[in-house]
Amino acid sequence: MGINYIGIGDFAVSNKPDDIIKTMALGSCVGIMLYDPKLKIAAMGHIALPDSKVRGQRGMDKPGRYADTGIPLLAKAMLNKGSKRGRSLIVKIAGGAQINDPNDTFNIGKRNVLAVKKILWKCSLILKAEDTGGNIGRTMQVGVDTGEVTLSSPGRSKWKL
Amino acid sequence: MIVTKSIADRVKEMPMLSVVSTRLLELLGEDNYSIRDVVSIVENDAILTTKILRAANSVAYSPRVPITSVTAAINNMGEKVIMGIAIESCAPKVFKDPLGGYMSEAGQMWDHSLCTAIGARQLSSYTIKESSSNLAFTAGLLHDIGKSVMSVILEGNTEEMLGHIDNGEAVSFLDAEKKIAGMDHTELGYELAQHWKLPEQLAMAIRYHHHPQDVDDKYKDLVYTVHLGDILAMMAGIGTGVDGLAYSIDRTYKDYIEIREDELAIAVADIQEEFFKTKQAILGEETE
């Protein structure tokens, strides 16, 4: 059994039943999990910002960091592992916490969740469950065999999504 | 439960800083200092010099020719890595020990401090009046030192604190700390800063990093950068554990820091990149 840890802007995909994909400490970032229940393929990404276009002339750093480039990448990774286009995937997201800013500028968590939902919709990926917002950090993991997503936060008991 | 009485003793029990560390922090607490002065202090300390040279020769930098002097190390890695290594070794216990009361593991406090420092430094280029980026970095590294003492007091009370936050009795984690300890980690940090005789501006950044509007005007630019740097670190998931993002933003930052949404997004990406690179460098993994 292996645990694939993914960091900010990274993603992983697996069809090994014993594998777990895990991302630690989602603050205002959003973790996105795609699962093909027939072929038992799971993918997870950890995006930090809504839109890669802010980089402008500076060029791309990590496409997985942004919702608009990260989600298509994740969907492609599923296809590369054998999942078929048009197959209904289970989609779950978590994170997007924030410290509420009355001036709105620092409300990145909220903007991330909105952007993720918009891009999922564009990619015809239907969101099944989410645990987003609030002011807690979340760790998210998925077991490849079952597609079961578990969340945890320091000082709180684990819960299923 | 109020345990204020023993807090003064706990602070006094914290080991004093070495002579080299005190001199170094005095220097780094100034608005402007020359890196030569830093070098001359660092070179008096064999352990510090070794750490810096190890980082300079690490995988993160992979120099073509081995780096053998502190000056060459600074040229290669930049000042902030040197400052990071120097401050970390001033008080390794504060930065490296796990914070049991915050349910965070060994190293998390250091990661959070480093990420805040990098964030504060980035934000210092958006202050309306000109402000010192080096000072923002140093203050960012030190802002949460109070947590090292607070952690011991909070241990075993975590559930109660989360209860206070969940039922709204505590608006922020600072209130929850006060309910348990009679004071919060910024007040405790200030006590520790006094104990260590840290320069006034650093002590003020430690004391007011959650409420910059309350600090004396002459420190406001600095303290707002640390406040927002801290928030960006927590948002990146590089926090200290159970407190998560349970704090408030001081909306008056707008009067001191001018940053647009798109500029902030770029700053966030840069901070994350720089954090991982600097962390790797400071850990100083040896090249093969």
Give descriptors for this structure.
heterodimer; A: 161 residues; alpha+beta; 60s Ribosomal Protein L30, Chain: A; five-stranded mixed sheet; 10 strands; 18% helix; B: 288 residues; mainly alpha; Hypothetical protein af1432; 0% strand; globular
How is this fold's topology laid out?
The complex is a heterodimer of chains A (161) and B (288).
Chain A: E1 3-6, E2 11-14, E3 20-26, E4 30-36, E5 41-47, H1 67-80, E6 90-95, H2 108-122, E7 127-132, E8 138-143, E9 149-152, E10 159-160
Parallel strand pairs in A: 1-3, 6-7
Antiparallel strand pairs in A: 2-5, 3-8, 4-5, 4-6, 8-9, 9-10
Chain B: H1 4-13, H2 19-28, H3 35-42, H4 46-56, H5 70-77, H6 79-90, H7 92-96, H8 108-123, H9 133-142, H10 146-154, H11 158-166, H12 173-181, H13 185-195, H14 200-208, H15 220-235, H16 261-283
Helix pairs in contact in B: 1-13, 2-3, 2-6, 4-5, 5-6, 6-9, 8-9, 8-15, 8-16, 9-14, 9-15, 10-13, 11-12, 13-14, 14-15
**In total, how many beta strands of chain B?**
0
Percent range of helical residues of chain A: 10-25%
- Report the sheet with the most strands of chain B, covering strand number, pairing sense and barrel closure: none
Can you write the helix and strand succession of chain B as a string?
HHHHHHHHHHHHHHHH
Could you say which structural class the secondary elements and strand pairing of chain A correspond to? Answer: alpha+beta
Shape of chain A: globular
What is the strand content of chain B? under 5%
Q: How far is it from the N-terminal to the C-terminal residue of chain A, by CA?
A: 22 Å
What is the number of helices of chain B? Answer: 16
Order of helices and strands of chain A: EEEEEHEHEEEE
Shape of chain B: globular
